[in-house]
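Known limitations

Structure tokens in this collection are predictions and should be treated as such. Users comparing against experimental data should check residue numbering before alignment. To illustrate the layout, the record for Sugar ABC transporter substrate-binding protein is reproduced below. The input appears on top and the generated tokens appear beneath it.
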Amino acid sequence: MNTGKRLGAGVLLAAMAVSAVGCGSNGNDKTNASSPAATGGASTKAAETSTAKTKKVKITYSMWGSAEEGSVTQKIADKFNASQDRIEVEVVAIPWENYMTKLNTQATGNQLPDTGMLKEDGVIQWSSDGMLNDVSAMYEGSDSKPLDSLAYKYQGKTVAYAAANEVLLLYYNKDMFDKAGVAYPPAALDKAWTWDEFVATAKKLTNDKKGKHPGEEGFDADGIVQYGASVENLPWQLETWTLSNGGGFYSADGTEVKIGEDASVEAIQRVADLYLKDHVAPLSVGQTDDGIQRTIIAGTVAMATNGAWNVGTSLNTAKEGGLKYGVAVLPYMKDKVTLNTGGANVVFSQTKHPEEAMEWLKWYNSEENNWGLISSGIWMPTLEKWYKDEALTHKWVDNPNFPPYEEYKSAVVDYAQSSAARPASWFYTNHTTDFNTLLGSVLGDVWTGKTTAKDAIAKNLDALKAAHAGSK
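Generated tokens:
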């Protein structure tokens, strides 16, 4: 669920459509509306009283997508509408290209929907503008709530929960490891590789045309036919390594930029050196979100980092084609860190029905209503119980779309609820799109070795701080 990228709304909605099968009526039909002449005054008064009791509060839910996609989502909403007699949800579909423009226009005219979808990187901005409601009470009285790392926070208040969970992982090609006689990466957090162990293993899995490895006499860095590793260097994923090295992009409260600190700069350079000095990774300039397709699935790289969504979006199909892959926890520099993310469903502050909007979102976000996405491996559950209740974990993970149960449970399920799991920065700070866009541009020459991470960031630190402040 990468920010700035629409994760296949058509696929998403098709998967959720399973939940809409067998939907009944919306429960808002006024049946038995006999005329006063036929029923008499007393019956009419009783009918009016009954109608008053069952009259529903109508709320609107906005989403990005085509009219057809909106129709699919409305069928899901109809299931909710039929499940109770208090709330009626109307879905409004807006094309992806016009979504934020439309919402901004509606905000200006005080005509925002009651609730709707919002990109990860827009939540804190809209909160800072006073456009989102506090949803801290959404799960009060429930048997479970979302993992703490999935709460979007602004000034100490929860302003949204992620509709799905995603964590960053290490994927690997089992055949390549077996052929090299190298042990698989660890699935258990307490056995995670250090960065040096990761690089040393990657060297054993990197081969030139003559079968030589980096560091061996006669190794040809220009003739590599198989690389040992690839670390995704999209800016938002790159934050993982700065945190792991004791730095970060921002301070813990998101108010200060820390990317210029030595620990942060060093971490970025170590990622760049996988290609530049260690000769274990292919060149990547951090601009395209197809890392697993370019590496593990292409058969050119033995292990690569990326998000959990890849299980469902690409690896399942590759497995059917013969790929034998595994999943492991990330290596670490100083601290064990993975980032989690997930797009938000929000309650807009202009609504007159915040409680009803939260009730709808709580129902809509439930695992049962998104089971197609979860069981395929595109999404992970958000509620704690799916991570802690063994029966629910088996229901989720024991299916052929996933790697073996124990492996996936350790490397993904347990990892996602561990102390290593930290929210991506858009969960708690503003202007991350501007910051990440600028950072991606700044680091372009670092990946090719034309400059160092230290020099590139130092020269552009004031601009990065301005971007974070919203004054680029």
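For this record: The chain has two domains: 9-165+342-397, 167-340+431-469. The domain at 9-165+342-397 is CATH 3.40.190.10 (D-Maltodextrin-Binding Protein; domain 2). Please report discrepancies through the issue tracker.
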